[in-house]
Amino acid sequence: MGLLSLAIWTPIVFGVLLLAFGSDRHAQAVRWLALIGSLLGLAVTIPLIAGFDAGTAAMQFVEKAPWVARFNMHYHLGVDGISMWFVPLTAFITVIVIIASWESITERVYQYMAAFLILSGLMVGVFSALDGMLFYVFFEATLIPMYLIIGMWGGPNKIYAAFKFFLYTLLGSLLTLIAFIYLYNQAGGSFDIATWHRLPLGATAQTLLFFALFAAFAVKVPMWPVHTWLPDVHVEAPTGGSVVLAAIMLKLGAYGFLRFSLPIAPDAAHEWAWLMITFSLIAVIYVGLVAIVQKDMKKLVAYSSVAHMGFVTLGFFIFNDLGLSGGLAQMIAHGFVSGAMFLCIGVLYDRVHSRQIADYGGVVNTMPKFAAFALLFFMANCGLPATAGFIGEWMVIIASVRFNFWTGLGAAIALILGASYSLWMYKRVYLGPVNNDNVGAMKDINAREFLVLGALAIAVLYMGIYPKPFTDVMDASVAELLRHVAQSKLN
After folding, report:
1. I want to staple 400 with a disulfide (CB 3.0 to 4.6 A). Which of 77, 300, 377, 408 is the partner?
2. What whole-number distance in Å separates Cα of residue 219 and Cα of residue 173?
3. CB distance 397 to 433 below 8 Å
4. Could you tell me the pTM of the whole model?
5. Is residue 490 over pLDDT 70?
């Protein structure tokens, strides 16, 4: 069993053990076992970072074994510069969520922790799969634990939100399954993704495949106009569910564009790039405006996520190395920043049991340590230099200006909007005099909350000050992908 298998199956095994032997009578033991499982899952990703060769675009840490021999399916894993960072990011966020949920979850604790551990392993599987059907199984299987997390531990409208999440993502994925079956037949009975990349497909086939894949990946990102499920789900999901959804699950769709849409249907990707750029710009501008008027903190950050993910898809479809690398950097940064912002909302909700901005005011007076952390994360959400939020957005804006001045101007407007809704929310929630007795009675963060927010703060600052380790890993794979797409266009 290689490192990638360990990264996938370690948290899943611990999750299954919790389901089999856990009980609420031993909730504290369950929490510790879940923490051990998540830490081991993170530990096995460290050799991936240390041993990764950034000088090659080839797949590394490859594992391959027969799976369903009759249909030529393989348990085939590997990572390149595009996917590598998302494996440790997934494991890191899982550890954060386990610690953050230590006291807030008091019912069915073992099932809650098990769901997150299993979800973690499945998401690592999505980023690691090199067999099309294996990817599809992991991709669809992630819906189950997240559906349960929302439906069992969510808010008053949790059933509605869980169904909306499941139906939106499942319906889009059915078209993707049809596309995969078509590619399997075209490749002579092979689900090998690398083989699919080399298929000589006609213009009509590429267009149909592109939109079939778009149906699943655009919903998952989510891109405008199929983003409407996200705010409802975030509002109803428990804090841990919102963190994982924003930090990791949205990245599965964006990753799908790079692993499937661009290399398999490069001509169609070029032909329909104008549509993808338009959708992306609408996301970063219109959805940013929608975020400004939100009264619910979670809804504001949810719309903010749609706007920030618009930068990702914009960077992908302007077809230059700076834009594509910027999109990937934005995915990683958004994982840290959005996760931190939802955790900050969770800290407030645990104390006041309200997400309404109007119910707060003057939090800095009673929770100065927490307010300092929140300020850092809000500034990162604005794209402040020296924070992780700046790196990807700035790269995408520069790439957009090179591509087309007006496209770059539209992307730059998003920075103004990001500052508007982020700072406006911070002012109303944290600054000024204490607004009511609930805020006056709030106590500052404890050691556990300080640890969680501190770890994310270090990640946000480290990536913002020294992004080289993150971007260097991508360079060779990004260059190879762009070469493949450009060569196909020339042919």
Report:
1. 408
2. 9
3. no
4. 0.90
5. no
